[in-house]
From TrEMBL:
Signal sequence segment: 1-21
Name under which the protein is recorded: Esterase
UniProt keyword annotation of Signal present: yes
InterPro entries: AB_hydrolase_fold, Mycobacterial_A85_antigen
Annotated PANTHER family: ENTEROCHELIN ESTERASE-RELATED, IRON(III) ENTEROBACTIN ESTERASE
Keyword Aminoacyl-tRNA synthetase in record: no
């Protein structure tokens, strides 16, 4: 009996000693900011770096800052928010376990709006403020100035929130680039308030001079674009230094390279024999992420229908798009790669081809490094006598820098348990999951432990596993997708996305009646996000999405466009 008592005492102590810090942390909101605070999440952030605010240094790498998070509701003006010192943190899970020492500390408040949705649920979520749902930069969010603290267990801490993030300046229209903001009736009905879609639009040379000419439409899917990217009407800035370093690509002078590529694209775009078409980049940030994944979702609403049947026809009418499925093409990388393929699969008659580069997992048997149908736990491979963490991020040599558990625990600390982090695993869950009884996305796995819910996995399979859906429905879907599917991925993709492409390719190559008649290609030792050009380094080819697939699109137009389509600019392929 005595041994059982001591064992229980040890277990109790081990939990209490890591969850209680014996400190009081007080968050005071300046009176000038109190009126607009009601519900939200408080982040308490620690950093050793004096050169950047702590809020900008939370990531999946070993050099991340420390963050703890706590939800609050019904804030009372004039009263401080007492931070719950048992709140979950990343990478150190509890405040009590923090190493003592000097830190720059900052409090940050992400505000939540209340949505009364058409499905009968009332939820509290951060609303995009025009920045693309980036919590650390979202206008109206508030924060304290970082202060240097000598942190010791048992010490009290008071932080004053007195700064508010200002509104962004919206880009202006130019001769070639236009911007629209469009109220979606479908999305407004779902969310119970006015909801908008936007787009950055690149018009072809001669658009104003040829009012009777109509154009094919290229939809470039990807993360939230604040303005049209990669198009520059003047040469690179001569004062740019070659000293700026791109850690991602390991090269110097990358800003100059980007400006040169953007200027080169402008010169091609305006040349007399270049193909004439419209390019759009869609803005569909929402309360969960910087874009919607362009499909209908139980938690996000009918974004797929809103984009395909409201936004795109509106753009085509206003800017003289041809307005028929044979004249629309899809491309993009990563999130945009998944979207390009998903939109083609779910709306096969409305689009004439997709070019999906480094797509997010398109077969959930390889959901990054997790098989959601067979694995019991997303974080661990488990055996009889040991368990091993699943990798989440690697470089082209296979060196691992983050685990799936790390990436999810970061989101858990930032956003809590209701998919509100605004980051990758949470948006997959928000898009693909059924709605839970509380109105929030039903978790695919326990965010802390990683235990997978097989019922949610089955829902994902039937509704969003693109390989499975194509295979399940090929008898009726195949003829509509023939010649339209093109997928590209590096075989050392940082997020293991190539594994799902391998599985999808295996199915596609076995298709009959009809054979899929598209392309699947891999970049040797190429990382995220290789998009199909084996002759160029990724840091260049990723800047050429808008010209990379034109030869294939031209071939497709020759085969499928009606006789009345003016093929002139599409038969003179110029590199």
């Amino acid at each position: 009996m005595k041994q059982i008592f001591y064992l229980a005492l040890v277990i109790l102590c081990s939990w209490a000693c890591t969850t209680s810090s014996d400190s009081t942390v007080e968050i005071v909101i300046d009176k000038s900011l109190e009126a607009e605070v009601k519900d939200g999440r408080v982040l308490l952030i620690f950093s050793r770096d004096s050169t950047s605010e702590p809020r900008f240094g939370i990531n999946d790498n070993v050099g991340t800052n420390q963050v703890f998070g706590m939800d609050f509701e019904n804030y009372e003006a004039g009263k401080p928010i007492l931070f719950d010192t048992t709140s979950f943190g990343y990478p150190v899970e509890s405040l009590a376990a923090m190493e003592e020492g000097k830190y720059y500390v900052q409090a940050f408040i992400q505000k939540h709006d209340t949505f009364t949705r058409a499905d009968g649920h009332t939820v509290k979520l951060p609303m995009d403020q025009g920045e693309g749902r980036q919590w650390a930069q979202a206008p109206k969010n508030i924060y304290s100035k970082p202060i240097l603290v000598n942190w010791k267990k048992g010490n009290d801490l008071s932080l004053t929130v007195e700064n508010s993030i200002p509104e962004f300046n919206q880009p202006e229209d130019t001769k070639y680039i236009k911007h629209i903001k469009f109220k979606s009736e479908m999305l407004s009905k779902f969310w119970g308030r006015d909801m908008y879609l936007g787009a950055n639009i690149l018009l072809p040379e001669g658009f104003d001079e040829n009012p009777n000419q109509y154009y094919p439409l290229m939809i470039f899917h990807g993360h939230f674009p604040s303005d049209f990217s990669g198009f520059r009407t003047i040469p690179p800035d001569p004062d740019l230094s070659d000293d700026d370093y791109s850690a991602r690509f390991g090269i110097y002078g990358y800003e100059k390279i980007q400006q040169q590529e953007a200027y080169d694209f402008y010169q091609k775009w305006t040349s007399p024999d270049f193909q004439r078409f419209i390019i759009i980049e869609i803005q569909h940030a929402n309360p969960y992420y910087d874009d919607s994944y362009a499909v209908n979702s139980a938690n996000l609403g009918p974004y797929g229908d809103a984009i395909t049947y409201e936004l795109i026809p509106n753009i085509e009418e206003k800017f003289r798009g041809i307005g028929e499925g044979w004249s629309r093409f899809l491309y993009g990388g990563s999130t945009g790669g998944w979207e390009a393929l998903a939109v083609q699969v779910f709306y096969p008659d409305e689009y004439n081809g997709c070019f999906a580069a480094c797509p997010d997992p398109i077969d959930f048997r390889a959901f990054t490094s997790v098989n959601i149908y067979e694995d019991e736990n997303a974080y661990y491979q488990e055996g009889e006598f040991r368990k091993t963490l699943r990798p989440g991020h690697r470089d082209y040599l296979g060196h691992i820098s983050a685990m799936v558990k790390d990436m999810n625990h970061r989101e858990l600390a930032i956003g809590g348990s209701k998919s509100r982090s605004g980051d990758q695993f949470d948006i997959w869950q928000a898009v693909y999951s059924p709605t839970g009884k509380d109105g929030y996305p039903k978790p695919i796995w326990d965010k802390y432990s990683g235990e997978i819910d097989p019922e949610v996995a089955f829902y994902w399979k039937e509704n969003y596993d693109l390989r499975y859906i194509m295979e399940r429905d090929w008898e009726t879907l195949g003829s509509k997708l023939e010649g339209k599917i093109n997928i590209f991925c590096g075989d050392m993709d940082n997020y293991y996305l190539n594994n799902a492409v391998y599985l999808t390719e295996q199915f596609l190559e076995e298709t009959q009646n009809p054979y899929y008649d598209g392309t699947v290609a891999y970049g040797d030792r190429a990382e995220h996000c290789w998009n199909g050009d084996p002759t160029l380094p990724n840091y260049i080819s990723r800047l050429r999405y808008n010209t990379l697939y034109l030869e294939e699109i031209g071939d497709r137009l020759k085969k499928t466009a009606p006789a009345g389509f003016n093929q002139y600019n599409w038969t003179l392929i110029k590199n």
